[in-house]
């Protein structure tokens, strides 16, 4: 029914913003969206008046911290600590004397001192260690500088210290011709953690990753890697999400030059590199991090309870403070320019966007995205971040970890959005885990499956994934482990007909291809899950006697020709290859062709490919007929039942299928053998 307004009612004005024009339900909130744009423009004008440009504003790391001045020949050390009473630089160079080297405070709250080469050349050298001694109204503490480039841990005391890092020979990049847009038309992302990327019971290195893992990633067809835990963090078991030193390259895995080698090698192989950046919170440790740095209780963070994350036991940034904006924006510029990263996956965006941080909140009403619970300062910061990244590297990728569904998060700022490119489809892995935990295979509801995998905001791109690191953490299990449980340890020999493994192998393939084909405009896989890596991820800790057993990747399982893991890896390579070749993820949303609850068959078309999933536990259907968009001759491109994927080879992969008109002559049907627990992918041949 169409409702027309009364003659006395004002006719609503046409929407100003493309975001609102596409989604009329946003019309009542257009003033909020316009106010966000206006506030951003006002802040940019303020920054330009004081710093000439946003990009120059984001150069704080070249002033603050320890930086070498080639013109004056010496080091400057500067630290922003407005509430502190005194600062002293201490380290190897002065015998750690807390009174020997005081800094002077400037009117902007920045303390500084110059260290000329003529006096410090032989003392303040590459590799030497240092800290800053901060005296406040209540205590005096040795702290790690906020802008340090490298922190190292003493093996005996476990104490962290900053380290002077100015090698005589700078790293020589050879990736000048690499452009993200030339190699990444649609992102196929391999999420990985360098430390756990080795099979041995120890921490892996940047160099090992470059030499052994990057070739695997390239062979599998992924065109992006997403590096976790690069920003320095004191507790290894935090997975890198409790960051202490935002400009520090984690020294657990090697040197800054070795990280640069990894990125350079990835670019040589045509692989973009994304940094998992954590600007949503910071570790609350005072010995290693920024908490209470100048004694004010706030400085980088909100004062009081607002500065504490209730679920993460960490500190929350004050995004409205200019110095905090500058710190975080400079951090983005540093990683883009110093290490040639190609973009960022922003962690914890939901926590940033709302005062309630998404804790225990269900999002079901548009007013929740524009009301008083939204942190407008965080929205402004994210818009500034997107603007800066676009200025510095136009083709960079920006991915938001957001489960709230904030409208416009992944639309350009000019259209009323916040400026990200992609949002992680966090509901999809949750759906699969819940389904496997609580629903028998024969009771799967294909309408729910279709809705969950296709339900996303029109005009905003999504990264689909069946499982990420979240699903692999101790306390949960990977999809392969949920599917095969204990049999994954005892029945994975290629000649073993175990029915539990047969079911698990089949569903693992179906789940991953359904997610890729339906779930978004990009696809993500967590390291090792492509071959069904067993077990969970559990980093060394007191509770497991500091063991690395669960913090590694057992590549030998996939490489062993006698085990079935190889077949899952082969299927992953085949489905990614097909999706890339056919530009599947650029094709828009899938079109439903048939949802058949009786036979548990789901058929749909996307990008010219016809997918037929049969989820039935034991019922295959000969002469299964369904309508297809175009008549003609169809060829089978991918068959999960193929023997090379540990299938039963129940159909001929070389077969050609011709459509037939239906009895009414109004449509064209394809007739196939819809084999159970398998997916078949067809493409219409021209001519």
From TrEMBL:
Lineage top rank: taxon: Bacteria
Pfam families tied to this protein: Alpha-amylase, Alpha-amylase_C, CBM_48
Enzyme class: transferase
TM segment ranges: none
Any one biological process term the GO annotation gives: glycogen biosynthetic process
One Gene Ontology MF term: 1,4-alpha-glucan branching enzyme activity
Residues of the Glycosyl hydrolase family 13 catalytic domain: 204-556
Active site per database record: 347 (nucleophile), 401 (proton donor)
Cellular-component GO terms for this entry: cytoplasm
EC assignment: 2.4.1.18
Record InterPro entries: A-amylase/branching_C (IPR006048), Branching_enzy (IPR037439), GH (IPR017853), GH13_cat_dom (IPR006047), Glyco_hydro_13_N (IPR004193), Glyco_hydro_b (IPR013780), Ig-like_fold (IPR013783), Ig_E-set (IPR014756)
Reaction equations catalysed: Transfers a segment of a (1->4)-alpha-D-glucan chain to a primary hydroxy group in a similar glucan chain
Sorted UniProt keywords: Carbohydrate metabolism, Glycosyltransferase, Transferase
Record CDD domains: AmyAc_bac_euk_BE, E_set_GBE_euk_N
Family that this chain belongs to: Belongs to the glycosyl hydrolase 13 family. GlgB subfamily.
Matches recorded under PANTHER family: 1,4-ALPHA-GLUCAN-BRANCHING ENZYME (PTHR43651)
Entry function: Catalyzes the formation of the alpha-1,6-glucosidic linkages in glycogen by scission of a 1,4-alpha-linked oligosaccharide from growing alpha-1,4-glucan chains and the subsequent attachment of the oligosaccharide to the alpha-1,6 position.
Protein name, as recorded: 1,4-alpha-glucan branching enzyme
Species of origin: Hymenobacter aerilatus
């Amino acid at each position: 029914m169409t409702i027309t307004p009364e003659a006395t009612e004002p006719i609503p004005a046409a929407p100003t913003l493309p975001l609102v024009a596409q989604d009329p339900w946003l019309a009542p909130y257009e003033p909020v969206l316009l106010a966000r744009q206006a506030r951003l423009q006002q802040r940019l004008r303020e920054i330009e008046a004081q710093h000439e440009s946003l990009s120059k504003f984001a150069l704080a790391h070249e002033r603050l911290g320890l930086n070498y001045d080639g013109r004056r020949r010496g080091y400057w050390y500067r630290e922003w600590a407005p509430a502190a009473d005194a600062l002293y630089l201490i380290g190897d160079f002065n015998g750690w004397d807390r009174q020997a080297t005081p800094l002077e405070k400037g009117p902007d709250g920045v303390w500084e001192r110059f260290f000329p080469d003529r006096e410090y050349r032989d003392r303040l050298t590459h590799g030497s260690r240092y800290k800053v001694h901060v005296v406040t109204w209540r205590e005096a503490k040795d702290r790690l500088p906020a802008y340090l480039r490298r922190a190292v841990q003493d093996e005996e005391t476990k104490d962290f210290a900053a380290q002077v890092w100015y090698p005589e020979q700078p790293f020589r990049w050879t990736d000048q011709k690499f452009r993200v847009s030339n190699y990444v038309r649609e992102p196929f992302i391999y999420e990985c953690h360098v430390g756990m990327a080795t099979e041995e019971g120890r921490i892996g290195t940047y160099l090992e990753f470059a030499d052994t893992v990057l070739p695997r990633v390239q062979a599998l067809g992924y065109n992006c890697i997403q590096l976790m835990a690069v920003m320095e963090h004191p507790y290894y078991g935090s997975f890198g999400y409790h960051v202490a030193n935002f400009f520090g390259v984690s020294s657990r895995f090697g040197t800054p030059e070795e990280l640069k080698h990894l990125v350079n090698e990835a670019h040589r192989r045509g692989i973009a590199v994304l940094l998992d950046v954590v600007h949503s919170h910071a570790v609350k440790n005072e010995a290693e991090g920024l908490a209470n740095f100048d004694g004010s209780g706030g400085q980088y963070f909100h004062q009081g309870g607002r500065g504490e994350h209730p679920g993460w036991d960490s500190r929350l940034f004050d995004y409205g403070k200019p110095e905090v904006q500058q710190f975080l924006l400079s951090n983005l510029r540093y990683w883009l320019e110093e290490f040639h990263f190609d973009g960022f996956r922003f962690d914890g965006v939901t926590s940033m966007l709302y005062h309630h941080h998404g804790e225990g909140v269900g999002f079901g009403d548009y007013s929740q995205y524009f009301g008083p619970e939204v942190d407008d300062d965080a929205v402004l910061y994210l818009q500034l971040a997107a603007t800066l990244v676009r200025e510095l590297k136009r083709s960079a990728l920006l991915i938001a970890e957001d489960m709230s569904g904030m409208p416009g998060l992944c639309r350009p700022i000019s259209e009323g959005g916040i400026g990200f490119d992609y949002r992680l489809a966090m509901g999809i892995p949750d759906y699969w885990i819940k389904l496997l935990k609580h629903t028998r295979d024969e009771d799967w509801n294909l309408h729910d499956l279709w809705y969950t995998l296709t339900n996303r905001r029109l005009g905003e791109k999504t990264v689909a994934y069946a499982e990420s690191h979240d699903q692999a953490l101790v306390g949960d299990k990977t999809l392969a482990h949920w599917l095969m449980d204990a049999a994954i340890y005892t029945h994975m020999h290629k000649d073993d007909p175990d029915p539990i493994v047969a079911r698990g192998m089949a569903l693992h393939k179906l789940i991953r291809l359904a997610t890729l084909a339906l779930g978004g405009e990009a696809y993500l896989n967590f390291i090792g899950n492509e071959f069904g890596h067993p077990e969970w991820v559990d980093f060394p800790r007191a509770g497991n006697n500091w063991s690395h057993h669960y913090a590694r990747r057992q590549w030998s399982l996939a490489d062993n020709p006698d085990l079935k893991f190889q077949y899952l890896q082969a299927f992953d390579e085949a489905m990614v290859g097909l999706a890339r070749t056919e530009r599947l993820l650029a094709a828009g949303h899938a079109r439903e062709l048939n949802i058949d609850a009786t036979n548990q068959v789901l058929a749909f078309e996307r990008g010219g490919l016809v997918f037929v999933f049969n989820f039935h536990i034991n019922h295959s259907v000969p002469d299964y007929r369904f309508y297809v968009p175009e008549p003609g001759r169809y060829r089978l491109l991918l068959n999960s039942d193929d023997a090379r994927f540990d299938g039963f080879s129940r159909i001929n992969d070389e077969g050609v299928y011709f459509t037939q008109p239906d009895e009414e002559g109004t449509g064209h049907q394809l007739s196939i053998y819809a084999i159970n627990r398998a997916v078949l992918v067809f493409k219409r041949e021209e001519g």
